[in-house]
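Q: I have 466 residues here and want to know how they pack in 3D. Can you give me a structure?
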Amino acid sequence: MDFLLEQLKMAEARFNLTRREVKGNKLVRKAKSRALGGKDDDELMGQMALNGTWFARLAIGEPPQAIDLDLNMLTSDFYVRHTTSHAGTRYDDLFSKSFAKSNQHPYRSCTLPTDVFHLPTIDKSIPLPFAYCRPLKGSQDTLQASGSMLGLAPSKNLRQIDTTFLLHQLLKERVIERPIFSLMLVSGNEGVLSIGGTGAQATEMVSKQTAEQLDRAGAQEKINAFTAENGKTLEGGTNSLDKANIPEEKIILHKRGGEAHGFKAKRADWKEGWTWSKVQGAEGWWQTLMQGVWVGGSRVLQNQAAVIDINTPFILAPPLAVKTFYAAVAGSRPLDPPYSNFYVFPCMNPPSIEFEFQGTRFPAMQGGRGMEYASAIIPGGKFSLGRLKHGSGYCVGAIVETGMGLKEEKEGMTGGSKQGIGSAATSVGSLAGNGMRDVWVIGERFFRGVSGVFDVQEKRIGFRAY
């Protein structure tokens, strides 16, 4: 439970790096300054090479240098970072013959050179300008991992670096036809990122293999959890990823700390078969309206604001919503402090859950009911975060209570906090908070059965079950 509590704190901290402000006639999100509880003024939002985060791989330069590309749905910047740390993966301009230097400085510690990008989404290499950041001496960022970050938030207001959004660069170069991307998590460790298209037909292919492949993925997750809980290892075989069957417009996603499993995908069609939901709330994140939460075929909650973020390992929900949800789950109860954000349920009786968007109900974390998981290492199906303790008949539920927004807005109104915000927060009132009061976070677990497409131009999100 200590590990889960630490993961919750880390997830909440990521949402507390922005604040809201009025810009013209609309409410937008922007990075917090250090005075308001954000990062240092020379530090960028987002961290690279963290265990449990999703990333792809790309190559830059001639000859190509392979680096990890971390995905971040809460920021809008695309940049490459070179530090003195040995952590992460490194691109070095000194070893690239195609590197073209620039005197432009889009951010305090970044220049704007051009180099050749070998993108998996196209069949040719193209030169692109990019933010190349080398932290200043004395900055904490010199100790951070090297690598690259792809911000996928749909608003320029969340940019800290004065550059063009990557999707718009690819659109200008006619590499893609529309500024859209899609995500499909085939297992807890692997998925597909499609830029300029969706995984529609890939979804159909995966649907036919779901029973076999996701069972293998689930088995590996159980093995990993058993290892963490018991300090032992189990032998278990899985198929290797058949990359030859992934088309060139697809980028294979990986989750740090996980292992690959096999799946196949074909070319995409972004137009058909998706349920579309408009982006709402303060401009910045992929926030939309979840029209209903269903448990056992009955709607228990309706009209809930929800932010999409695949790097959040749970489904986060406001306190009242969590209490209402678990009241509909037979045998569930909250844990005692300091773990009172978590609820448990009988492992042998996992609930049937659906999230509703635009009138369509999507299965959430379903599968593995009853005796099918009686002898498994992690009972409780996909809704389970694991046993409460070794030998317990109770499992920890993946919908977790969060108090985000409540404390921050209170501090903003009173002008005090542990960071010493003082009068700076008072001047902005409740906008000093992260605006997450009464807002859900639809994290990674929902997308292990539902693929999502994100349309930057039309400001909408599409969902499709597989």
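Q: Anything worth noting?
A: Residues 121 and 249 are 4 Å apart (CA to CA). The chain has a mean pLDDT of 80.
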